[in-house]
Amino acid sequence: MRNLVLTYGSGAERLARRISQISGAPLAEVKRRQFPDGEQYVRVCGNVSGKDVAIVQSFALSPDSLLVEYSLIADAVRGMGCRQVIGVFPYLAYARQDERFNEGEALSAKVFARLIEASGTDAVYTVDLHLHRFRTINEVFEVPATNLSAMPLLAENYLRHSPGGRVLVVGPDSESSQWAKAVAEVIPSVCTILEKERLGDREVRVSDLSGGMCSAAVIVDDMISTGKTILEVLGKLKESGVGRVDALVTHSLLVEGAYSKLREGGLNSLITTDTIDNDYASVSVAPLLADALLRDFASDR
Ligand code: R5P
Fold first, then answer.
1. Is residue 196 among the annotated active site residues?
2. Of 156, 164, 283, 295, which one's alpha carbon is 20 to 30 angstroms from that of 149?
3. 153 or 162, which is more confident?
4. Which atom of ligand 1 is nearest to the CA of 224?
C-alpha cells in the first residue's frame, strides 16, 4: 500500500474519493483554476515522491479539455518525483472512431491513446472500453493496459430488483454482444443481438426482434449518449408486448435530455454506473478499480 497514491482530474473527483476510501490509498488533492484566457492551471498537493500515482480521470462531455487537465496533472506528479503514472480512466473518450470510415478522417481512438501516452503514462486502467474493430485494449495502447468490466455488477444489481423468471437480454448491435453475453451469464435469460444502422449523430435504425418473447427484457450497451439507440430497441420491445424493459449501461453520458426521453418511452429503469458522474448511478465501479489497483500496486516494491 505504501507505494500507491491517488489523485484526480475534475472528470472523476467523486469516484477518486470513493476509490481512496475503499483501497486505503491516500488521495493527493488537486487545486485547479482557469486563467482569464481559458488556459488551465493545476497544482497537486501531497507527497508523491517515489510513489506509484494513479490519476483518476473520466473524459466525458468535454474530453479535449479533460485530456489537457490530465496531461498537466501527469506532468505535475512527474515533476514531484513520482515513480510511475497510472492513468485510471473509468470512461475513455473517442473510442468509437476506431476506423477511418471515410477518406480524410482521423483514427481518433489511436490518437487519443497516443496523447495519453505522450503525457507520460506508464499504465492504463479503464472500464468497458468500446472495443469493436480493435479486439483488445492492447491494440489501442502501447503501454500496459487493463480493461475491466462493470457488466457483472450491473447484472447482479438487476437481479436484486427483478421479479424473477426468464429475461430477454438484448444487444442493440454487433459490438454490444460482448456486454450482452456478460450480462446473460449472470441473469437467467435468452440473449439476442440486433443489427444497428447509424443514419446520423442522432438517428439510428435497429433490426426487428425475432423469436420468442419474455415478459421482461434488458437492453445492454456500453454507453448512452443521446439515448436514441436504447429508445429504438425499447420501441421494438414495447411493440412486441414486452411489459417490463430495463437498460443496463456502463457509461451514462445522457446528453440532450436522454434520461427523460427514455422514461417517457416506457423504460422501467436505467441501471448504470458512476464511471461518469451522473444522478442515476446505482452501481459504483470504485470497488472494481480499487481491487485492480491494490492487486497490481499494493506491494512495497
Ligand atoms: C455505439 O455503438 C455505442 O455502443 C452506443 O450504442 C452509442 O454510442 C449510443 O449512442 P446514442 O445513445 O446516442 O444512441
1. yes
2. 164
3. 153
4. 12
